[in-house]
Structure formats: C-alpha cells, structure tokens
Amino acid sequence: MVTLLIADDHPLYRDALKGALSLTLPELEIREAGDLTSTVGILEQEDVDLLLLDLHMPGSHDLFGLLHIRKLFPELPVAVVSGTEDPVIISKIVGVGALGFIPKTASSGDIASAVQAILGGDIWLPASVSEKLEDVDEQFSELADKVASLTPSQYKVLCFMRDGLLNKQIGYNLDIAEATVKAHVTAIFKKLGINNRTQAVLIASQLELEPPSSAGH
C-alpha cells in the first residue's frame, strides 16, 4: 500500500484532492494534515511515500515549510501544491528539492499523472511552466540550507524582523518575553552567518514566495 500525505489548511481542497486521487489511484492510502506541526508529527510516526505540501498553511511560511521538511526527512519525495504558477517561484521550489509542482487548478488527470510520476522517481511540472523555469544559483541554494537549520520559532522571528518589528513588538506578537526574542535573534544571526538585522531582512526577502503583482495562495 502506498501512503500519501496531503498537507493543506483548506479542508475543502483536501477533500477535493482526496476525491480526485481516490477515483484515479484507488490503491493509495491517504493521510491529512492542516499545519506544519501536524505534518511533521505524522511523518515521524508513519511511513509516508509522498507528501503533497501547501507552502502557505500555518507554520509553513514562504519556503520554510519545504526547507524544514527536507531537512528532517531528506529521503521523502515532496510535491508542492499552490495557487500560484509564477515560474520564478516554481524555480525556487524545485531548486531546493521539491520533486513536483501541482497547481491547485490542475485537472484530476494531471494530479494523478503527477503523483504516479513522482512515486516512480521522476520530476513532474505542468507543461505551461516547465520551459520557463530558471536555474537556481549556488548562492541561493547555500542560503536555503542555512535557513533550513532554523527552528519554526526562529523563522517566525526572522519574518517579523523582515517586516520591521522591534524585539518588544515581536515578543508581543508571539506572546514570549523580549529576552527570548533576543535569544532567538542571536541564534538566527549565528546560523545564517550574519551580524545585523539588515542582512537578516535581505535573506528573509529572498525566501518570499509572493510574486510582486499578486498574492496567490
């Protein structure tokens, strides 16, 4: 039995995806998760053959969810499902280790083809974007490796730093002490090999997944 995990915070989309896969690939055993924490929990407890990951579910900010899971489970095949089809974003997703990208507008047939291809060891991308992908440079790959070493809490702090919040404001938003925020900031600087907030903002900005003209989910 092949086990597939759908990690998406929209129950209606999970149900639609389950329905499409059940019709075309009835031999699949399907699990579900609605946030990054529960996704990791299932992956730690069960043998999952393929993860379909929504990068915008709770805990999975920008590229962090994918990077975090790739760090914890490097042998696990991961395909990203998303509402955006921006080639630059898809290039980054594939560049950091995803084996596929499935648009949320994909037909049942395309979804089944993607799952079968990835389970067979291939990379699957929609024909509309496969010729538009760009190579991810080595510097971005090294940056992604460093960010993958952050904890989810540290990445949240990094995102708030990117948004211009001070330590006190970050502590208020995360309901933690300012001293705890400072400890996170120190750890972030050390892991990323930087020494100021400006550098942190630049790094976090490179990991954003929203194209300039839209905010696709």
From TrEMBL:
Domain HTH luxR-type residue range list: 143-208
Pfam families membership: GerE, Response_reg
Keyword Isomerase attributed: no
Gene3D superfamilies linked: 3.40.50.2300
UniProt keyword annotation of Cytoplasm present: no
Coiled-coil annotated spans: none
Residues carrying 4-aspartylphosphate: 54
Domain of life, source organism: Bacteria
SMART domains: HTH_LUXR, REC
GO biological process: phosphorelay signal transduction system; regulation of DNA-templated transcription
Keywords on record: DNA-binding, Phosphoprotein
InterPro entries in the cross-refs: CheY-like_superfamily, EvgA-like, NreC/VraR/RcsB-like_REC, Sig_transdc_resp-reg_C-effctor, Sig_transdc_resp-reg_receiver, Tscrpt_reg_LuxR_C
Residues in Response regulatory domain copies: 3-119
Protein's name in the database: DNA-binding response regulator
Provenance organism: Alteromonas aestuariivivens
Lineage of the organism: Bacteria, Pseudomonadati, Pseudomonadota, Gammaproteobacteria, Alteromonadales
